[in-house]
C-alpha cells in the first residue's frame, strides 16, 4: 500500500483502523472528525485498493488482500495492537483482518456491519446489487432503501455519485461477491475479542434481530446498540452520535 492511501486523524495512544463499506471510502468518516477525541485516539481511515486515496492501486480486490494491506499498514505505522471499525462490507473485511492476526486486535466495532456469513443473497437480490455497478440510479435506490426510504432523494443521488467517483468499476464489481455470498462464520465462531455492533433503527437489512442471530451468536463478548434516527449510513446520518457512542466503547480497550 502507498503511504498516502489512507486518512490519518489524531495523535492519541489508542490506535484505530476503520474500514468502509461497498459504497464508501475513507471520506465517508469525514463528518465524524470534529467529534473525535484526537488526544486519546489515533484513527486511520483505510481505503481498499481501487477506492478513495488508493483508487489508482491495482489488486485482486478481495478481503484477503485487504487484510494483508491493513496489517502491512499497521506495521508501517509501528502499531503492534489496534482496534478495528467496519461499516457494512467493512464489517466482513475487518473479520478477515482478525482471522489473519487475532493477537493484534484489541476490539472491534461494527457499524451496520455485514456479519461473517455475508449477506446470503439469492440470485434475485444479487442481480439488483449487480445492476448498481453501472447504474447510478440503482445505487441511489439501494441507498434509499437501506436508510428506510425516509431521506432526501437528492442526498441518495449524491451518495451514489460519490461512490462512483471514489471507487473504480473493477474494484466495486470485484468486492460484491465477497460480502454478498462469502462466509467466514465457521472461522470466527467463539472468538473472544470484544465486539460492539451499532445498528441503525431504520436499517431494513442489518437489523437488531439479524445481528443477534449472527454477530452475538458467534462472538461471546459481543454487545449491541441501536442508533436512533439512523439507517445504514450512521456516519452520514448521525455522525456526532456515532462518534460519541463509538468512543464510549473504544476508550475501554
UniProtKB/TrEMBL annotation:
Indicate whether Hydrolase appears among the record's keywords: yes
Tell me which InterPro entries the record gives.
AB_hydrolase (IPR050471), AB_hydrolase_1 (IPR000073), AB_hydrolase_fold (IPR029058)
Carries keyword Phosphoprotein? Answer: no
- Which positions fall inside the AB hydrolase-1 domain? 20-244
Which SUPFAM superfamilies does the record cross-reference, listed alphabetically?
alpha/beta-Hydrolases
* Gene Ontology molecular-function annotations: hydrolase activity
Q: Which UniProt keywords apply?
A: Hydrolase
Domain of life here?
Bacteria
What name does this protein carry?
A: Alpha/beta hydrolase
Organism field: Caballeronia glathei
Amino acid at each position: 500500500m502507498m503511504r498516502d492511501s489512507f486518512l490519518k486523524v489524531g495523535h492519541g495512544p489508542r490506535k484505530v483502523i476503520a474500514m468502509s463499506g461497498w459504497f464508501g471510502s475513507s471520506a465517508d468518516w469525514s463528518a465524524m472528525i470534529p467529534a473525535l477525541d484526537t488526544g486519546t485516539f489515533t484513527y486511520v481511515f483505510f481505503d481498499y485498493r481501487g477506492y478513495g486515496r488508493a483508487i489508482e492501486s491495482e489488486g485482486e480486490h478481495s478481503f484477503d488482500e485487504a487484510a494483508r494491506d491493513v496489517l502491512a499498514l499497521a506495521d508501517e505505522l509501528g502499531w503492534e495492537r489496534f482496534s478495528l471499525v467496519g461499516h457494512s462490507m467493512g464489517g466482513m473485511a475487518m473479520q478477515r483482518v482478525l482471522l489473519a492476526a487475532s493477537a493484534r486486535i484489541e476490539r472491534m466495532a461494527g457499524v451496520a456491519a455485514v456479519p461473517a456469513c455475508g449477506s446470503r443473497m439469492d440470485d434475485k437480490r444479487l442481480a439488483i446489487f449487480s445492476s448498481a455497478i453501472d447504474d447510478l440510479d440503482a445505487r441511489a435506490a439501494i441507498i434509499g432503501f437501506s436508510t428506510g426510504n425516509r431521506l432526501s432523494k437528492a442526498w441518495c443521488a449524491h451518495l451514489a455519485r460519490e461512490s462512483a467517483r471514489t471507487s473504480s468499476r473493477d474494484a466495486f464489481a470485484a468486492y460484491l461477491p465477497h460480502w454478498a455470498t462469502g462466509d467466514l462464520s465457521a472461522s470466527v465462531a467463539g472468538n473472544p475479542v470484544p465486539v460492539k455492533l451499532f445498528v441503525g433503527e431504520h436499517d431494513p437489512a442489518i437489523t437488531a434481530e439479524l445481528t443477534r442471530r449472527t454477530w452475538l451468536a458467534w462472538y461471546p463478548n459481543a454487545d449491541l446498540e441501536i442508533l436512533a434516527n439512523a439507517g445504514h449510513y450512521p456516519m452520514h446520518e448521525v455522525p456526532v452520535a456515532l462518534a460519541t457512542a463509538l468512543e464510549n466503547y473504544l476508550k475501554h480497550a
